């Protein structure tokens, strides 16, 4: 039986494989959620570069958030990544939730990014 970590890696790879198949050259909006913070990057897989990033550890967000581990913090990070991605010239992305279920903080981040101007 596989360990929990191996199962998470396998699930994330399965999601990324299906995303890359339908990406058509669009950058990937990759999300990582820990127990205390949430991190997000817009990644251009063709060039292998990060175009924009945001997290609850950013100095401008950190002071305004009560904690980095709730849906309000995830929504704030979603708005910030949308703003930074649009500033970098990216409007169309594919959403990479990794091994995480589309629920709670992941869903709040995705909806805030859509409201901020990203299309996926």
What key attributes describe this structure?
alpha+beta; 19% strand; Nucleotidyltransferase, domain 5; RNA-binding; 120 residues; ribonucleoprotein
Structure notes:
With 120 residues, the protein is an alpha+beta fold. It has one domain (4-115): Nucleotidyltransferase, domain 5 (2-Layer Sandwich), CATH 3.30.420. 42% of the residues lie in helices and 19% in strands. The protein has helices spanning 4-22, 59-62, 71-87, 105-115, and strands at 28-33, 38-44, 49-55, 94-96. Strands 3-2-1-4 form a four-stranded mixed sheet. A hairpin with a 4-residue loop joins strand 1 and strand 2 (38-44). Helix 3 (71-87) packs parallel to helix 4.
Topology:
Layout: H1 4-22, E1 28-33, E2 38-44, E3 49-55, H2 59-62, H3 71-87, E4 94-96, H4 105-115
Parallel strand pairs: 1-4
Antiparallel strand pairs: 1-2, 2-3
State the CATH class: Alpha Beta
* Major sheet summary line: 4 strands, mixed
Number of strands: 4
Order of helices and strands: HEEEHHEH
Helix content: 40-55%
CATH architecture annotation name: 2-Layer Sandwich
Computed CA radius of gyration, to the nearest angstrom: 14 Å
CATH topology-level fold name: Nucleotidyltransferase, domain 5
**Outline type:** globular
Low-confidence stretches: none
Mean residue pLDDT: 95
Number of helices: 4
Straight-line N-to-C gap? 35 Å
Number of domains as seen in the coordinates: 1
Could you tell me the strand content as a percent range? 15-25%
Derived structural class: alpha+beta
Order of strands side by side in the largest beta sheet? 3-2-1-4
